[in-house]
Design goal:
Length: 386
């Protein structure tokens, strides 16, 4: 496991009362411990979530995600440590915290024998929200209009999940805390939830969500925390974590120098390099154009890596790729290996391969790598289950 510093204090102590100077983070968890019987299920968990983030809290079953979330939602008094939401201490100011957060528990029950609209009106009443216009606004935002007169009992699981998220929005919370919002959903329902979360982020909400399934989160989260056996092994923006891990890896395994005799001229002529033009093999939209149906941008937090191996010195094909559309970086390695960092899908990879082969490069192997979040996860965890 890597010894990444995930427990550093931010320096600005959150007070029990209203914030006074620099705005506090949306969520600040400090040295959280929790013990059930003789089992320490949380062991010194600390992290911050900045305003406007979509923070994915990832960990296997039993890692302690729900326990952490219940402490954030003022439903569990931790054995030690603190949680502050927007500067308010969850233990000292639970009422304030409840106004700020919209909490969706895992396996939240619904009342079945009322309509969608009645369900939301009931909770609007419970939250003492005076205007019923709020219910209409939430129904519109969550695209439940067509279902508003349906009995809750007749909704699919995905629709019920959407209704649960709608319920958490009624009091216009700044921070959403969602425990496993996408579990048990089919791919389409999961995409719908993802797009809704992205649109809520566009409206200025901070979103904290948990999952034990990595792929649920890789295209929605701007930052992550990975929890294993009650300990946070890494936390922060995905790009930053990837860079820190790469730097650590570099310190552990310095790149081997390329032996001079391997730089032999096995490589055929490189027409594109000779012409000096940057290749254009990006048949897909650039990242900025990737949006949800509602127009919210999907963060490209995860760059992808393609591992190539060519005959001869891979350094020679760097100029062919650098500056090409969709190319984020090119790193030659020893033995003809080369890493191409890019944004795109399978079609993009196929275009790169075609471009290299028609340019006369002796391509030996092409290996698309797992996405960045999966790579981080495999690198920092040991696969331990409690
Ligand atoms: N009320 C309880 N009493 C005793 N032990 C508990 C209680 N609630 C949870 N635990 C234990 O605490 C540990 C962490 O549980 P928690 O529900 O927080 O994990 P989780 O990461 O949310 O898991 P999952 O992905 O299955 O939801 C587990 O070992 C669990 O058995
Ligand atoms: Mg859980």
């Amino acid at each position: 496991m890597s010894a990444l510093d995930v427990t550093a204090d931010s320096g600005a102590p959150a007070s029990g009362g209203a914030p006074v100077s620099a705005p506090p983070p949306a969520i600040s968890v400090r040295h959280l411990w929790h013990r059930y019987g003789s089992l320490d299920v949380l062991r010194d968990v600390s992290f911050d979530v900045a305003h406007g983030e979509i923070f994915g809290f990832i960990g296997p079953n039993g890692a302690g995600k729900t326990t952490t979330i219940r402490a954030m939602a003022t439903l569990l008094e931790p054995t030690a440590g603190s949680v502050h939401i927007d500067g308010y201490d969850a233990a000292l100011d639970p009422d304030e915290v409840r106004k700020i957060i919209g909490y969706m528990p895992d396996h939240a029950g619904v009342y079945e024998r009322i309509t969608v609209r009645e369900f939301l009106e009931f909770f609007a009443d419970a939250y003492r929200i005076p205007e019923l216009g709020v219910v209409d606004a939430v129904i519109e935002l969550t695209e439940l209009a067509k279902l508003s007169d349906r009995l809750v009992a007749t909704l699919s699981k995905g629709m019920k999940q959407r209704l649960q998220i709608a319920r958490t929005l009624l009091h216009d919370p700044k921070v959403l805390v969602l425990d496993e919002p996408a579990s048990d959903l089919d791919p389409r329902a999961r995409i719908e939830v993802r797009d809704l979360l992205l649109e809520l982020r566009e409206l200025g909400k901070t979103i904290f969500l948990s999952s034990h399934i990595l792929t649920e989160l890789s295209d929605v989260c701007t930052s992550v925390g990975i929890l294993e056996r009650g300990q946070l092994v890494v936390a922060g923006p995905i790009g930053e974590i990837a860079e820190r891990l790469a730097a650590e890896r570099g310190r552990r395994e310095p790149a081997a120098p390329v032996p001079p005799d391997l730089a032999a001229p096995l490589m055929p002529p490189l027409p594109a390099a000779a012409e000096g033009g940057a290749p254009n093999f990006a048949p897909e939209a650039p990242p900025a154009a990737v949006v949800t149906p509602g127009g919210a941008p999907i963060p490209q937090a995860t760059r992808k890596r393609l591992k190539l191996r060519v005959l001869g010195d891979s350094q020679a094909i760097v100029p062919m790729l650098e500056g090409g559309s969709g190319v984020l970086g090119v790193e030659p390695g020893p033995g003809g290996s080369l890493s191409l960092y890019y944004v795109g899908g399978d079609q993009y990879v196929a275009e790169v391969v075609r471009y290299l082969v028609t340019s006369g490069v002796g391509l030996v192997s092409v290996e698309p790598e797992r996405n960045e979040l999966e790579r981080i996860f495999l690198e920092v965890t040991r696969g331990d289950l409690t």
